[in-house]
Design brief:
Layout (H helix, E strand, L loop, with lengths): L4 H8 L3 H14 L14 H5 L7 E4 L9 H9 L6 E4 L3
Parallel strand pairs: 1-2
Pfam families: CoA_trans
GO molecular function, one term: succinyl-CoA:3-oxo-acid CoA-transferase activity
Protein name: Succinyl-CoA:3-ketoacid-coenzyme A transferase 1
Length: 90
């Protein structure tokens, strides 16, 4: 996770207590497990092929029109269990 110079300057302009808190948050961000890979897939089965038992899936959406229907169908067709699924369906 990259932090731009502009964001750092904004954080630096806060009081010392907030700088310490921001520094703590920024240091935690370096432990992210995400990698820079292409996140666009040609089909839904390719997108879900790496989902294993016990995986965590975070899904965004917006009301009923934002339901990830294709994702739900594809995951349902796989033989995985113990998933943790979190949705921020606003």
């Amino acid at each position: 996770m990259a932090v731009t110079a502009n964001k750092f300057i904004i954080l630096k302009s806060f009081s010392k207590v907030k700088i310490f808190t921001a520094a703590k948050i920024l240091s935690c961000a370096s432990y992210s497990t995400s990698s820079e890979t292409n996140k666009i897939y040609s089909n839904i089965n390719e997108a879900v092929k790496d989902i294993k038992d016990g995986s965590k899936i975070l899904v965004g959406g917006f009301g009923l029109c934002g339901i990830p229907e294709n994702l739900i169908k594809a995951v349902n067709n796989k033989t995985v269990s113990g998933l943790t699924v979190v949705s921020n369906n606003a």
